[in-house]
């Protein structure tokens, strides 16, 4: 009996630019040869069946989309690990789809692709060139570069301008270290004096 593969999804939306209005869809089935794969993409549905050589299992999937896509403008990229797709949404709309599937019922095999997901109100912050590059490469992480710079900027904003060596704890530690060094230096002459006293005592005993 055919198993249902895990499906990951994320999306972008735009009311003016069709190239930024799409669904990321990944069918997680490894080692599916092209000769053992069937994929039928229609405006309102997707049908997939395939056989994994490494797992020695047959897989089958049927999806009915929440809204229409444009199959002619969509991309499919079978890899050795999975099948990656970028599905172009047919309707230009600023709002995200509320869900991937037509039916609101939750299904166990469908999960959010957090590597590619961004919130609806944050997607415009991702540089356009990054989005374009990831569309071509299929499998990049739009917004991650921007997120990294934001995180770096946040750290700089929190800690910038603060000299940790001048903080109370750091200064105290340095002062203690200096005092300990001074104590060590002061002890050295005392040890030398003790040694000289010991030698003098030995000479007196020899004379006696």
Question: Secondary structure elements and their pairing?
Answer:
Elements: E1 6-11, E2 22-28, E3 32-41, E4 45-52, E5 57-64, E6 69-78, E7 83-89, E8 110-112, H1 128-137, H2 144-159, H3 168-207
GO biological process, one term: chaperone-mediated protein complex assembly
Family: Belongs to the p23/wos2 family.
Domain CS: 2-101
Question: Key terms for this structure?
Answer:
three-stranded antiparallel β-sheet, five-stranded mixed β-sheet, Protein wos2, Hsp90 protein binding, single chain, protein-folding chaperone binding, 2 domains, alpha+beta, Immunoglobulin-like, 208 residues
Commentary on this structure:
The protein is α+β, with helices and mostly antiparallel strands and 208 residues long. The chain folds into two domains: 113 residues, Immunoglobulin-like; 38 residues. Helices cover 32% and strands 28% of the residues. The strands form two sheets. It has a five-stranded mixed beta sheet with strand order 6-7-2-1-8, with no helix packed on it. Strands 3-4-5 form a three-stranded antiparallel beta sheet, with no helix packed on it. Strand 3 and strand 4 form a beta hairpin. The longest helix is centred in the last third of the chain and has 40 residues. The termini are far apart. About 26% of the residues have low confidence.
Number of helices: 3
Helix content estimate: 25-40%
Tell me the structural class: alpha+beta
Largest sheet report: 5 strands, mixed
Low-confidence stretches: 127-180
Oligomer: single chain
Gross morphology: elongated
Strand content: 25-35%
Report mean pLDDT, rounded to a whole number.
73
The termini sit apart by: 108 Å
Q: Could you name the CATH class of the largest domain?
A: Mainly Beta
CATH topology of the largest domain: Immunoglobulin-like
The whole-angstrom Rg is: 34 Å
Question: How many discrete structural domains?
Answer: 2
Q: How many strands? A: 8
At CATH's second level, what is the architecture of the largest domain? Sandwich
Spatial arrangement of strands, main beta sheet? 6-7-2-1-8
Protein name: Protein wos2
Domain CS: 2-101
Region (Disordered): 119-139, 151-208
Family: Belongs to the p23/wos2 family.
């Amino acid at each position: 009996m055919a198993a249902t593969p895990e499906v990951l999804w994320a999306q972008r939306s735009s009311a003016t630019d069709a190239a930024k209005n799409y669904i990321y869809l990944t069918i997680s089935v490894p080692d599916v040869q092209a000769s053992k794969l069937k994929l039928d993409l229609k405006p309102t549905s997707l049908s997939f069946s395939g056989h994994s050589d490494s797992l020695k299992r047959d897989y089958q999937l049927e999806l009915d989309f929440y809204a229409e896509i444009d199959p002619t403008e969509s991309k499919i990229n079978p890899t050795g690990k999975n099948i990656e797709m970028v599905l172009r949404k047919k309707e230009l709309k600023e709002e995200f789809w509320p869900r991937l599937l037509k039916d609101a019922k939750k299904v166990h095999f469908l999960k959010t692709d957090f590597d590619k997901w961004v919130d609806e109100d944050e997607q415009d912050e991702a540089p356009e060139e990054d989005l374009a590059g990831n569309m071509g490469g299929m499998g990049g992480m739009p917004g991650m570069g921007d997120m990294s710079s934001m995180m770096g900027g946040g750290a700089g904003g929190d800690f910038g301008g603060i000299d940790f060596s001048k903080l109370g704890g750091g200064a105290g530690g340095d002062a203690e270290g200096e005092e300990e060094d001074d104590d060590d230096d002061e002890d050295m002459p005392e040890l030398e004096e003790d040694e000289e006293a010991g030698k003098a005592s030995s000479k007196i005993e020899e004379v006696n």
